Amino acid sequence: MKYLFIESRDPFESVDSKYFSELVQGVSRRGNDTTIFLVQNGVLSARKGSKHNELIRTLIQNKVEVLADRFSLRERAISSLIEGVKVSDVDQLVEVLFAPGTKAVWH
Amino acid sequence: MTSGKTLTIAIMDAPYESANSTTALRIIHAALKKGHNVNVFAYEGAVNLTMKAQQPHANPVKGTSVEEEQHPTTKDWVASLFQLASKKGVNLDWVNCGLCVDERGAGEWIGGPRRGGPKDLLDASLASDATLVIPTK
Prior knowledge:
Chain A is of the alpha/beta class. Chain A is 36% helix and 23% strand. Classes of the chains: A alpha/beta, B alpha/beta.
């Protein structure tokens, strides 16, 4: 199964982001093709040096593809990301949405 | 060139309240630009995105006039999405949930959207290649 998770929130705002990350990790550990698209404040954890970098590293360690929206990064003046995060955009998000069998969940 | 594929997207955030609205419009724009059909189910506060009576305003703090401020309105953004769909030869079906329209008095909207109900979301989703629901907080 393919899963696309879209994370628009951040752990500075809410502990829900941590639980959402755990959910995504669990889905990936079950052998599912899993992508998380960070958008809006969801990109804040990917800024190199953020106290919440570990949230993203754990996702990558669990074989989750982590994409970060370029527009959201520019809005927040984030130019340096932790290793393993790929800069992306909504064009790619639409492509992933249309990949056959993909289930999308927005947080 | 059209893809023949259809995306259904459900949105519920009111205009100017959340970045979700901007992202949703960006996704719809990207899908239309790629030649995909898009069904939008706007409910709750999102029925206000297309209200005809929206007007830009000046900014007295900055000292700008209406013309100088160029304040965008969501109705104009949605209108431009319909123009894009027409230019690309794809279908943009924008449904405003009638129940939500009635309770908000949001029945006067720009050309393009139509009134519908929850069944439209179900039918659209079942007939689509991809579905995305953007919830509010």
